Amino acid sequence: MQNTTLFLVTHRFPYGEGETFLQDEIPYLLEAGFRVSILPVSRASGRRALPAGVEVSDALVLTPRQKCAYMLRYGLGRLFWQEVLSGAVPFNARALARLAYACATVRVHKERLRAMLTAEENAGRKGVFYTYWFTPTTCACAGSHAPVVTRAHGNDIFPEQNASGYIPLCRWRATLPDMVVPCSRQGAATLEAQGVPPQRLAVSYLGVPEAEPQLRIPSPNERILLSCSSAVAIKRLDLLAERVRQYALARPECACVWHHVGGGELLAPLAEYCKNHLQGVANLQYVLHGQMPVDAVRAFMNTTAVDALVNVSASEGVPVSMMEALHAGIPIIGTAVGGIAELVTPDVGMLLPADANAEAFNAAVDALPRFKSPAARAAIVQAGRQRFSSANNYRNFCSQVLLPLVVAPPLLCPGDNCDPR
After folding, report:
1. Contact in structure between 128 and 7 (CB atoms under 8 Å)
2. pLDDT band for position 417 (cuts 50, 70, 90)
3. Other C-beta atoms lying within 10 Å of the C-beta of residue 258
4. Does pLDDT of 65 surpass 90?
5. Is residue 356 part of a domain?
6. What is the structure's pLDDT at 419?
7. Same structural domain for residues 331 and 414?
8. Total structural domains within the chain
9. Position 415 confidence tier, pLDDT thresholds 50, 70, 90
10. What is d(CA 21, CA 323) in angstroms, rounded to the nearest whole number?
11. pLDDT tens column, 118-141
């Protein structure tokens, strides 16, 4: 397998702090025998440590000036008008700009990726593309005629997770990759409805490392809740703050605590909301921890007494925080959106309706005492290990998805349909 280079296309990884799952997945890509070359499409401050032998190339990163130039040169070509005339594009400036940038990205990245493949062939190696997100760069990979597999998570599947309510080239991209691998069954159903052939779909859950949690349990009269997400609109943290406030007021006999981990553009407004509405509730404390490194989040979950991790998002994929909570023996409460229902089963927590109304929220929190025993917490840990083990899930992904593409001929890009000119 050392004669095969796996080009791993990311958003920013290893730069910045996002895409944390990849830190756990890369060792299994190496274990499978691939040479791994990471291709981020953008950069951020800071670069995380990588295992020995993993290469990083900025060949796909475009400067702001390049982005503008390429959008003007390639953004309004045949592919742009094909998408517009299909009626798929909302008529607003944000959606049209995203489409133009997507079309330019396909064209520019395809040329650069083909050059990389030529270099691999000259060195006597094969190239395989693995894109972590189902984006226009995935389409560019398919245009290079090498095997392509892409994962798909949330905002690259569900249009409502995007500010414009639109995923550029959503229908056009559907038949381009050899395999599309969503991280939830709900994601697979949505992708099939968007035109991805079912024989090219394979659900593969992500995973987190097994932990040895301390299984600290709050006292009977405590209700200690944790949320862990970016502070952005779709996470509805203002709604969660209000639900926590209402619960504390309705249950004065309970000592309520809410921890939130995660930063983002709406953290300051959330802090102001909490100051104005939560601070005066006698039996309620709250702590907004802000952004924390993934290792610190895991340590917090494994050593802190918490009754439940709560997620009231309006739309989701399969939240990493919920997987981490299960491995730490923490019950989970979440809205029935996206892939959350695939995590929240009666043995590990409670499912809320999509609107996360106060009655359902209070009932879920009232039910948490059934998990206040070492046996119940140990059962949650075991459930997490069975379904969301990084070792099991990433080895299966390599053996069942990636490795077959190395020995099987790729599905050729359908002629001129892949040419964005």
Report:
1. yes
2. very low
3. 24
4. yes
5. yes
6. 42
7. no
8. 2
9. very low
10. 11
11. 999 999 999 999 999 999 999 999
> Six-digit token pair at 306?
């918490």
User: What is the pLDDT, as a whole number, of residue 406?
Assistant: 84
CB contact burial 126-163 (16+ within 10 A = b; e otherwise): bbbbbbbbbbbbbbbbbbbebbbbbbbbbbbbbbebbe
- State the virtual CA torsion across 330, 334, 340, 341 in degrees, nearest 10: 100
What mean pLDDT is predicted for residues 334-352? 95
Contact in structure between 2 and 8 (CB atoms under 8 Å): no
Report the alpha-carbon distance of residue 275 to residue 165 in Å, rounded.
Answer: 32
- 91 half-sphere exposure, CB direction, 13 A CA radius: 3
- Among candidate residues 63, 67, 54, 61, the one with its CA nearest the CA of residue 27: 54
Q: Can you give the pTM of this predicted structure?
A: 0.88
d(CA 358, CA 19): 33
Domain presence at residue 212:
no
pLDDT surpasses 90 at 410 = no
DSSP string, 309-325: EEE--SS-S--HHHHHH
pLDDT exceeds 70 at position 53 = yes
E-strand stretches of 59-125: none
Residues 63 and 176 in one domain: yes
150, 173 contact by CB (below 8 A)? no
CA nearest neighbour of 60 among 77, 37, 76 = 37
Domain that holds residue 236: 222-388
Structural contact between residues 10 and 41, judged by C-beta atoms closer than 8 angstroms: yes
pLDDT at 418 over 90: no
Asked whether residue 216 is assigned to any structural domain, the reply reads no
